[in-house]
Design brief:
The protein is of the alpha+beta class. The protein has seven helices and five strands, in the order H-H-E-E-H-H-E-H-H-E-E-H.
């Protein structure tokens, strides 16, 4: 790989954007290599560049402890599901009808969202008679969110 360009990151960004838009880096491989090297330049202070070598161990797969967290974040990525979660009071159990009654969504749509929350283990459920009752799986959420907090504290 050629040496890192001795120009400022601000001058390299337009070249990088052009190569990314074009997606045909084969026509100018030298520029492409310089652009990827420029990605590593994150800050410039007093004309000195700080090179950051990023961890790339997790670019293809998540660690096992993060997979549940990924499911939780994916499930909570929908605003309707977030609002449903906020309906629950401490120790409360709700059924589909009760949630649909206060929601702008139809009963079948509420059922679909509850299924996603249950599959992500955010909610627990129990069928009593004809109704399925849901409640927040607090211990599980504490564990998953604890992993996030531990990670943030570790990189601080």
């Amino acid at each position: 790989m050629p040496p890192l360009p001795t120009t400022s990151p601000a001058l390299l960004l337009p070249i990088f954007r052009r190569v990314r838009k074009d997606r045909s880096a084969a026509s100018s491989p030298c520029i492409c290599i310089h652009c990827f090297a420029a990605i590593k330049i994150l800050t410039a202070q007093n004309d000195m560049f700080k090179i950051i070598d990023m961890k790339n161990d997790y670019t293809r797969t998540l660690p096992d402890t993060w997979k549940p967290m990924s499911r939780v974040f994916t499930a909570l990525g929908d605003e309707h599901r977030q609002r449903m979660l906020l309906l629950f009071e401490k120790g409360e159990r709700l059924n589909v009808g009760q949630i649909a009654e206060v929601s702008t969504l139809s009963r079948s749509t509420v059922s679909h969202h509850l299924k996603i929350l249950r599959e992500a283990e955010i909610l627990c459920s129990e069928k009593i008679g004809k109704e399925v009752w849901y409640w927040i799986n607090c211990p599980y959420l504490e564990e998953v969110m604890g992993n996030v907090v531990e990670y943030v504290r570790a990189i601080r």
